User: Which sequence fits this backbone?
């Protein structure tokens, strides 16, 4: 081309549509355990490239179903210690319901001898107390003493019975049992008594209806917390009908959910809050007696899918959790979760009756159960053939079944 005049080089600016927001994962931090299975925390943020620069965006702009885990399993080396247990004792009663106990001790896997329990302090420990039944007492045959239903012979039997008696009330919630507030009336002026009791006892309740009004004015406690729950496919919207909060005195209203957190005091009347998921917790802090807010909530089909098809939601005061069964050829990339929400005045206990996640070798260390305390955001991992008892610090918990 030498004989031909060479044109001048030009650079033209092009303006393509910006790339959609995406998840960004930073390298995982150190393993939480010096041996055995632990967790490494990685920072997950929502970013978008704008004008050649990476800009941090709100998390709801990124696809929720594709969000990477913030905690990933890690194994540094095989542990040399583990918990071991004695045989269960005999039932504490000769008839009726009682308890059985057993002793725990820390065992060295090298010498197979007990060592100082401090060596096992990092490992989850199985239960050392369980219920038992020695059969009906002669004077109790044919009758049921008050409170006996709280001490079942076998959890499975009790849960099936309880579910059969109450599941027709909350079939639309995908759970057989509900912890929603129930008020009883008495003959003669019962309606007035019920209204007064409902007015004073609104705090600490879980509301499971599709719509309702919650009056949080004039409550006796300084902090009043209520929770609203619906099936996984729905989301909740709340309208503030009235507010007498004294903002200058520090009175405030807090809303929290799995994907949102919001506080407010000024300009609350007629403002609208959306939960983005199927659960919402409302906490009111008042200083002056008589102040408070009146809320109206409604539920509707969620505009975006924020859950996996294998996820489950439980609201009841008791229930059974079964991990999803997947055949090897049906292995999925998604993590199946179970969300548990109870009344704010209650706490959650999870007891593993039977677990079999395969041998505890390195080849199966990705098979585990992850339990998260939503209030403290602390996570515990269980693996192998452990039986365990886990207790929450708040009224919400999440369980993930991995692999």
Assistant:
């Amino acid at each position: 081309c030498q004989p031909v005049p060479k044109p001048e080089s030009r650079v033209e600016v092009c303006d393509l549509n910006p790339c959609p927001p995406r998840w960004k994962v930073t390298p995982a931090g150190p393993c939480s355990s010096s041996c055995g299975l632990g967790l490494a925390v990685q920072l997950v943020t929502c970013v978008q490239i704008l004008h050649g620069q990476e800009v941090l965006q709100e998390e709801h702009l990124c696809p929720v179903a594709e969000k990477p885990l913030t905690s990933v399993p890690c194994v540094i080396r095989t542990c040399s210690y583990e918990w071991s247990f004695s045989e269960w004792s005999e039932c504490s009663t000769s008839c009726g319901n009682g308890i059985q106990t057993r002793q725990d001790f820390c065992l060295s896997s090298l010498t197979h001898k007990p060592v100082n329990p401090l060596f096992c302090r990092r490992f989850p420990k199985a239960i050392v107390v369980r219920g038992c039944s020695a059969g009906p007492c002669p004077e109790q045959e044919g009758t049921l003493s008050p409170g006996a239903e709280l001490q079942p012979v076998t959890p499975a039997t009790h849960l099936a019975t309880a579910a059969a008696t109450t599941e027709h009330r909350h079939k639309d919630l995908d759970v057989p049992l509900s912890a929603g507030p129930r008020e009883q009336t008495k003959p003669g002026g019962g309606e007035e008594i019920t209204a007064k009791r409902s007015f004073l006892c609104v705090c600490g309740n879980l509301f499971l209806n599709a719509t309702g009004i919650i009056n949080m004015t004039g409550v006796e406690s300084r902090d009043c917390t209520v929770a609203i729950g619906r099936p996984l496919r729905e989301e909740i919207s709340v309208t503030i009908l009235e507010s007498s909060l004294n903002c200058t005195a520090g009175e405030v209203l807090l809303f929290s959910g799995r994907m949102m957190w919001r506080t407010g005091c000024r300009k609350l009347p007629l403002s609208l809050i959306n939960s983005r998921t199927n659960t919402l917790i409302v906490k009111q802090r008042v200083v002056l007696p008589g102040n408070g807010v009146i809320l109206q909530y409604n539920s509707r089909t969620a505009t975006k899918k924020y859950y996996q098809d294998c996820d489950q939601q439980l609201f009841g005061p008791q229930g059974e959790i079964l991990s999803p069964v997947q055949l090897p050829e049906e292995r999925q990339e998604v993590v199946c979760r179970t969300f548990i929400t109870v009344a704010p005045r209650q706490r959650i206990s999870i007891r593993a009756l039977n677990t079999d996640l395969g041998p505890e070798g390195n080849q199966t260390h990705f098979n585990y159960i992850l339990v998260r305390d939503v209030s403290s955001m602390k996570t515990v991992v269980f693996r192998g053939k452990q039986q365990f008892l886990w207790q929450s610090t708040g009224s919400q918990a999440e369980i993930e079944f991995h692999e």
Notes: The chain has four domains: 22-76, 81-132, 210-301, 312-402.
